[in-house]
Task: inverse folding
C-alpha cells in the first residue's frame, strides 16, 4: 500500500510524506559551484517559505554525490542564549545530535596511520619527498590523528627541518625534532585550547587524569562532555587520558610554567651539570635535590596551584624539565584510574623510568613498587625510580623523606619519599 502524502503547513517538507515540487529547482548548480570554490553563502527568505526544505535537500544531494559530507543542523532553539558558557555547549550538543540523526562519519581526526600515510603520499607524489615509515608511525603515535597536529608536524619537517629539500626524506628523528620545535613555537592552536585549563569545570576533569584518579570523574557529567568535545581527552581505549601525547605535554607545561620559570631563576642552587655525567643522568642526585627543594617549597608552591591535588606531580615535572632543556625529553603516560603517573626521561637514548604516586596509606608503597616494575618491563629497563608524595597529615618530614632500594627479580627500584 502506497504511503499517503499530504499538504504540509508545518515544518520542512519531504517527498515521501508531502506534496512538493523540487526544492532545488536548478538552484543546486549555482550553490554547488560555491561549495566547490569553498565559498560561504546565505539562504535568505521569509518565514515558512522553504529555507529548511531547501537546505535539507541540498545536504542530501551533496551527500549522495560522495565528494563532501554535508550536515544539516538547526540552532533555532538556542538563538536567544546570551551566555556563551551556556550557548557553546548547547551548540556542540545540537551538532552531536545531528551527527547521530543523519549518520554522517566523524571526520574530526585521521582514523589511523594509513590515513596519515595517504595524506603524506600526496606530498610525495607532487614533490618526490618521502616520509619514511618510522616517521609516519611517530606522527600517529604522538598526534593520534589530530588533524592540525598531523599537518603542523609535516609542515615543520618539510619547510624548516629539511629546508625545502625534496631529495631529503623525512625521518623519525626529524619528526621528534619537529615535535620539540612545535611545542617551543607554541602556536595559537595551543593557546586557544590551554586557555581553557583555568576553567573550574575543565580542572575537575583534567586533574584526575594528571594524578591517575578516576573516582573523582563522572563520565556522564556535562563537565566531562565539555572537555571531551573540546578535544582535550579521549576514552576510546578504556582509559581517560590526554587526547594525544603532545597535548599531554602541553597541558603539563602550561600548568607548571610558573614553577619552571622560578626554578630557572634559582638555577645556581640546582645547576644542570650536577646531574649529568658524560652521556648519563645521575637520577639519584637529581631526585635527592628535589627532596630538599620539595621540603623547602611545598607549603608555598602547592597552594599557588589551582590544581591542588596534582601540584606535587606538576612541580616535580617542572624540576625534571631542566633535563629536557639540557637536551633530553620526557615521555609521559597519564590516565585516570591508573593511580599513578608514569614518566620516562630519555637522555642520549638512555631511558630513566619514573613513577609518581600520591601516598594516602600504607599500601601505596608496595603497590607503587609493583607498578614501576611493570613499567620498567615495558620499557626494557633494569633500573627505575618511584617517587611517593606523602599526603598523610600525621607524618613528619623526617618520616616523609627517605630513600630505599628494592629488588624485584632482576630489577632495581629506588624509592624516594617526599
Result:
Amino acid at each position: 500500500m502506497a504511503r499517503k502524502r499530504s499538504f504540509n503547513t508545518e515544518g520542512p517538507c519531504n517527498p515521501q510524506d508531502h506534496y512538493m515540487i523540487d526544492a532545488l529547482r536548478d538552484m543546486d548548480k549555482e550553490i554547488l559551484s560555491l561549495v566547490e570554490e569553498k565559498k560561504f553563502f546565505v539562504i535568505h527568505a521569509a518565514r515558512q517559505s522553504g529555507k529548511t526544505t531547501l537546505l535539507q535537500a541540498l545536504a542530501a544531494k551533496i551527500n549522495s554525490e560522495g565528494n563532501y559530507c554535508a550536515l544539516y543542523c538547526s540552532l533555532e532553539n538556542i538563538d536567544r542564549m546570551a551566555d556563551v558558557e551556556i550557548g557553546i555547549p548547547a551548540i556542540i550538543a545540537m551538532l552531536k545530535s545531528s551527527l547521530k540523526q543523519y549518520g554522517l562519519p566523524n571526520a574530526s581526526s585521521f582514523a589511523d596511520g594509513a590515513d596519515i600515510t595517504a595524506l603524506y603520499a600526496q606530498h610525495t607524489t607532487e614533490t618526490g619527498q618521502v616520509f619514511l615509515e618510522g616517521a609516519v608511525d611517530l606522527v600517529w603515535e604522538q598526534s593520534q590523528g589530530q588533524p592540525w597536529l598531523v599537518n603542523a608536524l609535516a609542515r615543520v619537517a618539510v619547510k624548516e627541518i629539511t629546508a625545502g629539500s625534496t631529495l631529503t626524506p623525512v625521518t623519525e628523528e626529524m619528526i621528534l625534532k619537529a615535535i620539540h620545535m612545535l611545542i617551543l613555537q607554541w602556536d595559537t592552536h595551543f593557546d586557544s585550547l590551554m586557555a581553557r585549563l583555568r576553567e573550574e569545570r575543565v580542572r575537575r576533569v583534567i586533574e584526575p587524569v594528571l594524578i591517575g584518579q578516576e573516582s573523582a570523574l563522572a563520565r556522564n557529567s556535562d563537565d566531562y562532555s565539555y572537555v571531551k568535545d573540546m578535544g582535550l581527552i579521549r576514552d576510546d581505549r578504556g582509559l581517560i587520558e590526554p587526547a594525544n601525547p603532545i597535548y599531554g605535554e602541553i597541558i603539563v607545561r602550561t600548568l607548571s610554567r610558573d614553577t619552571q620559570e622560578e626554578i630557572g631563576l634559582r638555577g645556581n642552587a640546582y645547576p644542570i651539570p650536577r646531574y649529568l655525567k658524560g652521556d648519563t643522568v645521575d637520577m639519584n642526585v637529581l631526585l635527592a635535590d628535589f627532596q630538599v627543594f620539595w621540603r623547602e617549597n611545598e607549603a608555598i608552591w602547592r597552594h599557588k596551584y589551582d590544581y591542588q591535588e596534582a601540584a606535587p606531580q606538576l612541580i616535580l615535572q617542572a624540576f625534571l624539565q631542566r633535563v629536557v632543556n639540557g637536551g633530553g625529553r620526557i615521555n609521559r603516560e597519564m590516565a585516570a584510574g591508573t593511580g599513578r603517573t608514569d614518566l620516562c626521561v630519555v637522555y642520549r637514548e638512555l631511558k630513566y623510568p619514573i613513577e609518581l604516586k600520591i601516598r594516602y596509606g600504607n599500601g601505596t608503597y608496595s603497590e607503587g613498587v609493583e607498578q614501576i616494575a611493570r613499567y620498567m618491563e615495558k620499557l626494557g629497563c633494569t633500573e627505575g625510580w618511584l617517587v611517593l608524595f606523602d599526603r598523610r597529615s600525621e607524618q613528619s618530614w623526617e618520616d616523609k623523606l627517605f630513600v630505599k632500594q628494592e629488588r624485584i627479580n632482576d630489577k632495581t627500584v629506588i624509592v624516594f619519599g617526599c
Observations:
- Residues 89 and 226 are 7 Å apart (CA to CA).
- The mean pLDDT is 82.
- Strands lie at 233-234, 241-242, 276-277, 280-281, 329-334, 341-347, 350-359, 383-390, 402-408, 411-417.
- The radius of gyration is 27 Å.
